Amino acid sequence: MTDAISTAAQTSKAWPFEEARKLIKRFPGGKRDASGQLVPVLFETGYGPSGLPHIGTFQEVLRTTFVRRAYEVLTGGHPTRLVAFSDDMDGLRKVPDNVPNKAVLEAHLGHPLSRIPDPFEKFESFAHHNNAMLRDFLDRFGFDYEFVSASDRYNSGAFDDALKGVLRNWQAIMDIMLPTLREERRKTYSPVLPVSPPTGEVLQVPVEVVDAEAGIVRFIDSNGETVEHTILGGWSKLQWKVDWAMRWVALGVDYEMCGKDLTDSVTQSGKIARVLGGQRPEGLIYELFLDEKGEKISKSKGNGLTIEQWLEYGSEESLGFYLFREPKSAKSLHVGIIPRAVDEYWQFREKIPTQPVEQQLGNPVWHLLRTNGPAQGEGDKLPVTYGLLLNLVGVLGAQATRDQVWSYLGNYVENADPAAHPALDGLVTRALAYNRDFIAPTLQRRKPEANEAKALAALDQALAGVAEDATAEDLQNIVYEIGKNPDFGFENLRDWFKALYETLLGSSAGPRMGSFIALYGVANSRKLIAEALG
């Protein structure tokens, strides 16, 4: 890390640095223990293992990592930790649709997720299965994190002192929570959800504190009997907002972000954390994702975009780039945004070496390249844009192959060997998939208008005198000159380009035509023109 970067970071307006400065203000000399020793600032992300990890899980860990790295830059390398916490002591409320052996789960409704058999028959419990998926998911992207599960903490007694703190401050917590609840809910609300000794279910019943120091409470069990029992050692689970606050205090969490839908939870949990002798962590409240109709994404509706879908049509880096920008603004999340995100990622990556330090720190790619270690590849350039690749495969048709695309890339790319351009090769595969699923089924080239036909004929005539290896710039100049010729009646160049896209490529938008002609080949481009004129 250079002194210039460290200095510029102090005033950078990039949101990770602004978030990290909250922690600088919280710990002016760094986070220290009672003896004055520097200790790690703790970042946390949460995960509910009733379902599989998804794009929301990825974005929260990634965005938190941006802030973590920014804090390290601002402090000259003060220690940090990132905990990925699995809330796997929750009782199972409903059976997910995407699991086998549903009867196994139906027989254990209400039981903690970590005490329910794995319907996939691979792990000791349903939670262990989903937790393994979470770790595999995070490892796949190279995140640096520590995994912590609620069931391990509750069952081992690691949370026992914190649970006693909840019992000691019972009335204060009730005073915070009851005014936020509906009348019916107030009658049964309890900060602690005891686990039934005979059935093992997590119970939603009123609870009376008997002995806070011993962890004993009284409640009516599901069989109607009044029971006095411990809540320690895995015999309870706290209600969500109380649980979140307890976890912050017990683990010493300093930073945790969340979605806008948890704004109220942050407020109430922050008050409870103060009652428990701690404080609410710093954090960012981010906006939620929208689908292409502008509606909120819902797992039950299935109107979202999965991370697997993004990675089928776009790169991991492009997803990270898209998630970096404007986290406090609602973001559309659908396949139509992927091509632009891919190309913008590479545009920003190419810019880094030519930017002053202040601009580098505001460049999303600068942060992306540092999430999982030292930066590599700053200034790298993609020889062909993803948009241009999509135009090429669109012309080649739904049956286009990887080898066929690379044969055309030889017209445009020096040393056109997939092994020499692995990032481009990955995008070729994705472009073929995107074309197959979204472009080819809707592709429709329109017939040119009379003036457009004359311009296309002039372009064909001009290309007839051009060498096959003409540069993209020379070809672009030819296209420009025809579009500017008043004989063809275009009010502006935009109308000419739109005509080229719609008649030759079957699209309302497209690439620099000089680049496309160079890539597709002069002779092949003349064939396209002939088809349009025919």
Concise account of the structure shown:
By secondary structure, this protein is mainly alpha-helical.
What does this structure look like?
The protein has 534 residues and is mainly alpha-helical. It has 24 helices and twelve strands. It has five domains: 3-156, HUPs (Rossmann fold); 182-238; 289-368, no CATH class; 386-442; 450-533, Arc Repressor Mutant, subunit A. It has helices at residues 3-9, 15-26, 55-74, 102-106, 126-140, 150-156, 160-168, 170-177, 183-188, 240-251, 263-275, 307-313, 316-324, 338-351, 357-362, 364-368, 386-396, 402-409, 422-439, 450-464, 472-484, 493-505, 513-520, 522-533, and strands at residues 41-47, 80-86, 146-149, 192-194, 208-211, 216-220, 226-230, 236-238, 258-259, 285-286, 289-290, 331-332. Strands 1-2-3 form a three-stranded parallel sheet. The protein is elongated.
How do the helices and strands line up, and which of them pair or pack?
Elements: H1 3-9, H2 15-26, E1 41-47, H3 55-74, E2 80-86, H4 102-106, H5 126-140, E3 146-149, H6 150-156, H7 160-168, H8 170-177, H9 183-188, E4 192-194, E5 208-211, E6 216-220, E7 226-230, E8 236-238, H10 240-251, E9 258-259, H11 263-275, E10 285-286, E11 289-290, H12 307-313, H13 316-324, E12 331-332, H14 338-351, H15 357-362, H16 364-368, H17 386-396, H18 402-409, H19 422-439, H20 450-464, H21 472-484, H22 493-505, H23 513-520, H24 522-533
Helix pairs in contact: 2-3, 7-10, 8-11, 10-11, 13-14, 17-19, 20-21, 20-24, 21-23, 23-24
